[in-house]
Amino acid sequence: MDIQAIVIVLLIGGIAGWLAGKIIKGGGFGIVGNIIVGIVGSVVGNFVFAALGLFAHGILGSIITATCGAIILLFIVRLVKRM
């Protein structure tokens, strides 16, 4: 993976984590937390979308997939925290 790909992954992760935090009404996780939530959310989103037979292409599709996965991730984390 070259430096350009790493920067794109970090940007998409940051945007997706930030969007998920706004949608879920979280307090925010800071830039590093948003990137981590976005990257992990991307993995979750790709898994869920593939299971549903949906595939997104391009940067916008990657942001949408990562944001959906991050929302699912944050929802599960909130459920576990309440227990």
From TrEMBL:
Source species, domain of life: Bacteria
Signal sequence coordinates: none
Pfam (any one): Transgly_assoc
GO cellular component, as recorded: plasma membrane
Membrane-spanning ranges: 6-24, 31-52, 58-80
UniProt topology in membrane: Multi-pass membrane protein
Keyword Transmembrane: yes
Subcellular location(s) of the protein: Cell membrane
Alphabetical keyword list: Cell membrane, Membrane, Transmembrane, Transmembrane helix
Family: Belongs to the UPF0410 family.
UniProt protein name: Transglycosylase associated protein
The species this protein was found in: Marinomonas spartinae
Lineage: Bacteria, Pseudomonadati, Pseudomonadota, Gammaproteobacteria, Oceanospirillales
